[in-house]
Task: structure prediction
Amino acid sequence: MTGGGPVRVRLRVTASDGTEQAVTVQLIRSGSVVEVLRGTTPLAATLLADPPAPRAREYFRLAVEPPHELLSNPIFVARRA
Result:
């Protein structure tokens, strides 16, 4: 990414069978939980986060539970000077 604007994180969690399921979603940034959302599926949100430091590389991922534990692959974000 270029510039120092916020990082926009958009997420959506649905149940594979289309039913409403109570879920807790944790947004993880480089190993630390930075946001916790609770709701029912389908759950969608857009969150803003501070950009990484210049030349730094960080990652975001989601942890979702119950009824099963789901951990997304990391999405890496880097800021060019």
About this structure: The chain has no helices and seven strands.
